[in-house]
Amino acid sequence: MIKLPVALALAVRCSAGDLGWDDEVTIGAENLTANDAPSPCVAGASLSLAELNFEMISASDNVATNVLIDVLGRETIGQACTRFGLRDTAVRRKLSGSTLIDDPGATGRNTHPAGDAALILRAIALGTAPAADRLYAALRAQIWNDKLSRGLVAGDRFVHKTGDTSEVSHDGGILQLADGRRFVLVVYTALPSSPENDARFAAFARALRPYFDRNEPD
Asked: I need a surface site. Which of 86, 88, 104, 150 has the fewest CB within 10 A?
């Protein structure tokens, strides 16, 4: 889920004109780590910031995330978080697969609680986040849809970001019902990532879903 504030900080910088979405970055070997899906982020490849952002959000690409952390700087990401009221979010280290990558700038564990994730998603839903349409499109292209998405009903649209490690499993996004009403839904757990625990997310969403229908529009 730490990829959400990285995307927000990138949107802030690009909207301010400090960076451009079409700016290209070459992937260095120092940022390589394991991904759960095939990735265009290989050593020597050149990708635009827009492409890196899309891979980071839609496919949860760890290498794209590490490259963007270098481009933005951890302090800049923190400043963007503070601007949007994310007081408990901090990017302190790059992301790794099964083996920690060498990260001389690391200062501890990353933090991004569920409440802060909800603030980013709300800003995207309301259009108050910079480049909200671009961020929304990346969330909508999410390839990992085995958690809350499986508990929703026909006509629902859930644009979202998952977060998985061997210790935790999370999911959060913007739920739009067939009648156009939208809700921000974020679920964090201390459950390890597994198909069995993914099924628990789906069961929770199925149990929760009727309550959204009771929330009638004004």
From this structure: 104
pLDDT in tens, 168-208: 999 999 999 999 999 999 999 999 999 999 999 999 999 99
Tokens 């923190």 correspond to 78
Q: Which residues lie across from 25 on neighbouring strands?
A: 47
Question: What's the sign of the alpha-carbon dihedral 182, 91, 189, 138?
Answer: positive
| Residue position matching structure tokens 């628990």 | 200
Q: Are strands 169-176 and 157-164 parallel, antiparallel or unpaired?
A: antiparallel
At 209, the amino acid letter reads: R
Whole-Å CA distances, 75 to 69, 105, 192, 214: 10, 11, 30, 43
The encoded tokens of residue 141 equal: 């292209």
Please tell me whether residue 64 adopts helix, strand or coil conformation: helix
Question: What is the DSSP track for 105-148?
Answer: T--S--B--HHHHHHHHHHHHHT-STTHHHHHHHHHT-S--SSG
β-strands 157-164, 46-48 pairing? unpaired
